[in-house]
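Inverse folding, one chain.
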């Protein structure tokens, strides 16, 4: 069976660096941190009192207040980034067959704030079960894909992938596979997350996963630095419009890049920790490279999972060295989480977008906040520390890994017709 080609024809981003694709990219290449003290609740008693929140976001600028109240924040974010991506793609203007356009979304947690609010109100009361009729529809993770499809009348494949922090990369890979198998003409894909609330911060603090650098939030996310002490929680959404190549060409669509491969693997090791030798990370990158039918030496840039945790960063570097060998020293490697924080289930979406923009513009976004070399890491590798670097980027690979040992990699290349 001849597989079809898959291209990216639209993108949207709602991130701690900016509330549009253009603002997000500008924030990345300028090396700006999105971390700051938390504004959404009083975090005084929390071990971590900062996060990478959205800045200046008002949902009522994007949808009616009554409608917004029916959506948890993670669905609001999904709708906003998807609206930007759909407009960017011009897909609906081409009068497409809506039966062949789907939505495959990713979210690791879903409506956490909604669950928190409903539980709080119930336990504050006298025990009488009074719940908002939208409680369940707002909370369930699949609802974001449902809302996107309803808005545009998209009747193709429709679901949400849940694999912790790998969720939206899983969604992108699923969308890619369905299109190249001929099951859809186009798919709205990506992910969203909204866990900057008491339950989200408290839960990750209890795991000792978060940085506690409250005295200097902007430098707290420092992947590969010797003094890294955990990740910084982020929020937001990213959307990609994946489209079958001939379908896109027929309507004269703008094409950002081509998706050429995806890989998935399991660590089968630990509930939250990565395999110390990076076996799962190695396997997913090898699977993606094999799927793309390219050699490892053709890859120019790896956007790493790079969360700024002591164990995770070391394991991923080991995996990169196993996969790329001598070519590892010719790669650019960077962690954009140093700027955006960790968007959990939405991380893969905004990081795939970073790869696509790097391929399109021949600029590698940096890993900021590097102050001290880690002796466990090979400093001959190019981690793109602190400043963006210009180079020709023909092929880029994005890694995302999740609690439970879920590993995903997706590969994009420069579009050349």
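Residues assigned per position:
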């Amino acid at each position: 069976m001849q597989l079809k080609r898959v291209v990216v024809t639209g993108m949207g981003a709602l991130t701690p660096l900016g509330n549009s694709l253009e603002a997000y990219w500008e924030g990345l290449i300028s090396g700006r941190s999105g971390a700051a003290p938390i504004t959404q609740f009083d975090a005084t008693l929390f071990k971590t009192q900062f996060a990478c929140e959205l800045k200046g976001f008002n949902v009522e600028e994007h949808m009616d207040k009554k409608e917004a109240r029916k959506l948890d924040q993670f669905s609001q974010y999904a709708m906003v980034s998807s609206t930007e991506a759909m407009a960017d793609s011009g897909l609906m203007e081409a009068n497409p067959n809506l039966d062949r356009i789907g939505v495959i979304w990713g979210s690791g947690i879903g409506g956490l704030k909604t669950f928190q609010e409903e539980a709080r109100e119930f336990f504050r009361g006298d025990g009488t079960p009074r719940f908002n009729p939208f409680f369940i529809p707002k909370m369930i993770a699949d609802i974001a894909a449902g809302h996107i499809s309803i808005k545009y009348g998209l009747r193709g494949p429709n679901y949400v992938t849940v694999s912790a922090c790998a969720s939206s990369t899983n969604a992108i890979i699923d969308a890619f596979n369905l299109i190249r198998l001929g099951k859809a003409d186009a798919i709205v894909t990506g992910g969203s997350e909204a866990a900057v609330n008491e339950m989200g911060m408290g839960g990750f603090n209890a795991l000792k996963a978060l940085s506690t650098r409250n005295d200097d939030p902007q430098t707290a996310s420092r992947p590969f630095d010797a003094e890294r002490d955990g990740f910084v929680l982020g929020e937001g959404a990213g959307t990609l419009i994946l489209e079958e190549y001939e379908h896109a060409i027929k309507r004269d669509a703008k094409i950002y890049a081509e998706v050429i491969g995806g890989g998935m693997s399991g660590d089968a090791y630990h509930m939250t920790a990565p395999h110390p030798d990076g076996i799962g990370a190695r396997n997913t990158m090898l699977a993606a490279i094999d799927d793309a039918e390219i050699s490892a030496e053709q890859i120019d840039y790896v956007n790493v999972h790079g969360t700024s945790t002591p164990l995770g960063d070391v394991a991923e570097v080991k995996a990169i060295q196993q996969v790329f060998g001598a070519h590892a020293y010719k790669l650019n490697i960077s962690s954009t989480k140093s700027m955006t924080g960790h968007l959990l289930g939405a991380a893969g979406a905004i990081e795939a977008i970073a790869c696509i923009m790097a391929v399109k513009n021949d600029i590698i976004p940096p890993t900021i906040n590097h102050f001290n070399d880690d002796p466990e890491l090979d400093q001959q590798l190019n981690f793109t520390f602190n400043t963006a670097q210009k180079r020709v980027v023909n092929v880029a690979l994005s890694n995302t890994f999740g609690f439970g040992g879920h590993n995903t990699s997706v590969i994009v290349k420069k579009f050349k017709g």
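The chain is about 35% helix and 20% strand. The mean pLDDT is 97.
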